[in-house]
Amino acid sequence: MQESDFEYVGFWPRVGASIIDAIIVFIITAPPLLAIYGWGYFINNNGPLVAGPADFLLSWVLPAVAVILFWLYKQATPGKMVVSARVVDARTGKTLTVGQSIGRYLAYFVAILPLFLGIIWVAFDPRKQGWHDKLAGSVAVRPKHRGPEPVRFGG
Length: 155
Prior knowledge:
- This protein is mainly alpha-helical.
- It contains 7 helices and 3 strands; from the N terminus they run E-H-H-H-H-E-H-H-H-E.
- The protein has helices at residues 11-37, 40-43, 53-74, 78-82, 98-112, 117-120, 131-136; strands at 6-8, 86-89, 138-143.
């Protein structure tokens, strides 16, 4: 495939993909967290950032490893797959390296700290890159014509 076969993925499809990914992570992590820490874990908003070792592994390590592995092996998380998006190297269009993937994941924290400005940046950037994309040298792309055939009006 050539560059002309793809388009950059905009803000709203990426928000939708993130919501899908967050729901999946919650469905996977909530039951064991509930079993270990009880309902207070979800209700107590004034608690510590990390409730214990199991919380650290289930809430921080597992999602990070899963996302990075999805980027490396599928070029997309499940949410991105739903919107037909792939995360690729901005220069080559190929799969991200391990270093880029880890850097992109960590750069999300940089992007969300100033009131999510680095995420909102996607809406205004010509290549639809958030700060995490710019720092990692990545772009989110999808095929231009995702349907069975392009829309044509008339005869």
